[in-house]
Design brief:
This protein is 39% helix and 22% strand. 28% of the residues are buried.
Length: 811
């Protein structure tokens, strides 16, 4: 068992952060990464947070002696993982972080000397080691697949036939896998380089047509590495099969920080779904690893909640050696996202994987798959479906006519079974056919010879190049697959994309004569086929006459050149920005144009997607600065109105409360005056029952009837009780004690709450002795009211108990 290796890498400031004069909030020393809170008070607990990782790479400043280059990152992580793959282990390296934090640069890098990422370097070293260790006793074979997960849908980037969403299945031995995902045989690093390049082209084409960027999708590049060794002493062949998964995750970002709406918000929701599920999986695995004893209850890990985590199941806590690279931004404006990434990575450190050497995998798989196929065929036979191979080797399913005896038996069974059972039988047959087809695909793939794999790879390559050629995308120049390069002679268009890793991936040559641009629905075949919104079947024509390129738009076609809409033919100069429709942004290059013209026409700052978009807005009369100021003024006006409304509402509520307070104050004063009139009296003064016949204010004789006497006596008894044990007086007089008791409870962190309550003495729930009033009613009076007292309800929320105190006990 081994823990997941975790590394953190911080990139330099980008242009946006430099323009906003951001401050660096990341410090690194050894394996420790420290993040400073730009809003936290210095010296407080919230000021700085420290994290320890296996590796902390300082790539912020190239002039710094501690600067970590691409080669340093590869030597620490890539070389170790490659060594594990030669030992026969599955390995996985995945990059995580917010959009623009440097994940793609760490994984793919640039096609320049010293700028290659982990993926190209690990492929180079793989074939270098194969060449250095090849002999008669050991044979190596390498296959690759390249897929993209976008909005929970899986795309094959290497096979143009596999369009749309591929199905994710699970096999008890193989685990989760993508059905029909192409695995192409490669014999050199150049083969892998070409496949990565063409896969990125396919990814860019699909992204442009769908108006998305690669930052919105997860890319998974997988290398299947097989070592076959022949042992002369035992005359046996053994195999080690390693799966190297290299994953570039989509950017983690919050919707409120990106301002995403509509489609972008839906994309973000799917990305956040998969990344949130990944976080849940990491947390669950970390929690399991931290337990000292095995839990009696089985721990649930939500692998199936997203396609990404389902496919990475073995790499997370399973049979794999895994490394995670967390890419972070150094800028203070990205503090929240950076802290989230560091916490994510810190949690991943605790995951423990149980990697084993994958030896003799194919032989065991083939044997068990054959047994499974035999069982499924027997099951289908019981359902009356015959399975046999046709003349072309394909499996054919036929409904067999039952014999007379079988028919009689079946009729008897049908008489005893209901409709539900027949439906269940049909479902079982359909599931069996589905499983049988999947198993036969797997066994056919495992039984395929290396020569057959090479032939299939070549056929797919021809199909892929034909698709690119049909679309007008350049794939070859002098027989060599090209990546990001500038052709020497031919005028061409190169794509610009919001994601820098997808810019200049597509090259469209402008041949001598006319080059037609449109969609696949055109009546005449188009030399360059585009798709997406606002692309007409026949959109425009580029005419190349003696090295001068003229762009002629078709009627109603939406075209912009250098930010201005074009409705008439225009001569293009090298470096011109051309926008076709809404999503297709290009830069025009003419290598034969004189150097002076190129220098005069080319702007000082780099011509990228952002430059083209800003230029488009400015030329269309949209001044970004003015727009921002206008929007700011609108926001300020909205804030002012909302503040006035809130102030007005507050003022009305204040006046309302003041009026209520004045009314209560007057009521208190009136009651106080009334009470003061009787303040000189004591209960003993009223002990003589004869006094009730004399009005205390007027010394006059009272001549009442017997009925009036009884009413007066009852009223006197009631008044006598309420006068000297007034509920209102009890509440007002003890409110300060109740408030103080609650304050003490909060200060001492006791989960106890105090509040007043009224308790009434009844036959079924008599009052406790300590809560009974000092003055009692006449016991011989049948009409005496029930005794009601003010008590204190003490709620013990910790233990779920409730007690009642007297006011004396509260005091």
């Amino acid at each position: 068992m081994s823990s997941v290796k975790v590394a953190v890498r911080v990139r330099p400031f980008n242009n946006r952060e430099i323009g906003r004069e951001c401050k660096c909030i990341i410090e690194m020393g050894g394996n420790t990464t420290v993040i400073a809170n730009p809003k936290g008070p210095p010296g407080s607990k919230e000021d700085k947070k420290s994290f320890n990782f296996d590796y902390s790479y300082w790539s912020h400043n190239e002039d710094d002696p501690e600067f970590s280059s691409q080669s340093i990152v590869y030597k620490d992580i890539g070389e170790e993982m490659l060594e594990h793959s030669f030992e026969g282990y599955n390995v996985c390296i995945f990059a995580y972080g917010q959009t623009g934090a440097g994940k793609s640069y760490t994984m793919m890098g640039r096609q320049e000397e010293g700028q290659e990422g982990i993926i190209p370097q690990i492929c180079k070293d793989l074939f270098k080691r194969i060449r250095d260790t090849s002999n008669a006793e050991i044979k190596y074979s390498v296959e690759v697949s390249y897929m993209e997960i976008y909005c929970e849908r899986v795309r094959d980037l290497l096979n143009p036939k596999n369009k749309g969403n591929l199905r994710v299945r699970e096999h008890p031995l193989l685990g989760p896998y993508v059905e029909d995902l192409s695995k192409l045989a490669v014999t050199s690093y150049e083969d892998i380089h070409d496949l990565i390049d063409e896969g990125n082209k396919a990814r860019t084409v699909a992204a442009t047509n769908m108006n998305e960027t690669s930052s919105r999708s997860h890319a998974v590049f997988t290398i299947f590495f097989t070592q076959q060794r022949y042992d002369e002493t035992t005359d046996l062949c053994t195999e080690k099969v390693s799966k190297i998964s290299l994953v570039d995750l989509a950017g983690s970002e919050r919707a409120d920080s990106t301002g995403a709406k509509g489609t972008r918000l839906k994309e973000g929701a799917n990305i956040n779904k998969s990344l949130t599920t990944l976080g849940k999986v990491i947390s669950a695995l970390a929690e399991i690893a931290s337990k000292n004893k095995k839990s009696k209850k089985a721990d649930f890990i939500p692998y199936r909640d997203s396609v990404l985590t389902w496919l990475l199941r073995e790499n997370l806590g399973g049979n794999s050696k895994t490394a995670m690279i967390a890419a972070i931004s150094p800028a203070d404006i990205n503090y929240d996202e950076t802290l989230s990434t560091l916490r994510y990575a810190d949690r991943a450190k605790q995951i423990v994987c149980k990697a084993i050497v994958n030896e003799d995998a194919n032989a065991k798989l083939i044997r068990e798959l054959k047994e499974e196929i035999q069982k499924l065929r027997e099951l289908l036979k019981q359902e009356g479906i015959e399975v046999h191979e046709g003349p072309d080797g394909k499996v054919v399913y036929e409904k067999r006519e039952p014999t007379r005896a079988e028919e009689v038996t079946r009729n008897n069974k049908e008489n005893n079974e209901n409709h539900r059972m027949r439906t269940a039988s049909t479902t079982i047959a359909e599931e069996a056919v589905d499983q049988l087809q999947a198993s036969e695909k797997l066994i056919a793939e495992l039984n395929e010879t290396w020569e057959e794999k090479l032939k299939r790879t070549e056929a797919i390559r021809i199909q892929r190049e034909a698709v690119f050629a049909e679309m007008g995308v350049a794939v070859k120049e002098d027989g060599i697959t090209v990546g990001v390069f500038s052709p020497k002679r031919t005028p061409h268009l190169v794509n610009l994309n919001e994601d820098p890793s997808m810019s200049e991936c597509l090259i469209y040559y402008i041949k001598d004569g006319a080059t037609r641009v449109g969609s696949a629905e055109a009546n005449l075949p188009q030399d360059v086929q585009l798709s997406g919104s606002h692309i007409k079947p026949e959109h425009c024509t580029f005419e190349n006459k003696d090295g001068v390129i003229t762009l002629t738009p078709m009627n109603g076609a939406l075209i912009y050149v250098n930010g201005r809409e074009v409705i008439e033919p225009i001569v293009l100069k090298t470096g011109s920005r051309v926008i076709l429709g809404k999503n297709h942004v290009f830069r025009f290059n003419n290598p034969d144009a004189p150097r002076e013209k190129r220098e005069n026409s080319s702007p000082a700052e780099p011509v990228d997607w952002n430059y083209a978009q800003i230029e488009l807005l400015e030329k269309q009369g949209v001044d970004l600065k003015a727009e921002m100021e206008k929007r700011l003024l609108n926001l300020e006006e909205q804030y002012r109105k909302e503040k006035e409304t809130a102030d007005q509402l507050f003022e009305e509520q204040r006046k309302c409360y003041e009026a209520r307070i004045d009314a209560l104050q007057k009521q208190v004063e009136e009651q106080s005056m009334t009470m003061s009139m009787y303040s000189s009296y004591t209960p003993e003064d009223f002990n003589n029952e004869d006094d009730i016949f004399v009005n205390p204010l007027f010394d006059a004789e009272c001549n009442w009837s017997e009925r009036e006497y009884e009413l007066a006596a009852t009223a006197w008894r009631k008044w006598k009780h309420h006068q000297f044990t007034s509920l209102r007086d009890d509440l007002w007089g003890n409110a300060i004690f109740l408030k103080e008791a609650n304050a003490i409870s909060v200060e001492l962190k006791k989960k106890v709450q105090f509040q007043f309550t009224l308790l009434t003495d009844t036959l079924y729930s008599p009052l406790p002795v300590d809560l009974r009033p000092a003055i009692d009613y006449d016991t011989d009076d049948e009409g005496a009211p029930s005794k009601t007292v003010v008590a204190v309800e003490v709620q013990d929320t910790k233990n779920g108990a409730t007690h009642y105190w007297s006011l004396d006990k509260l005091r």
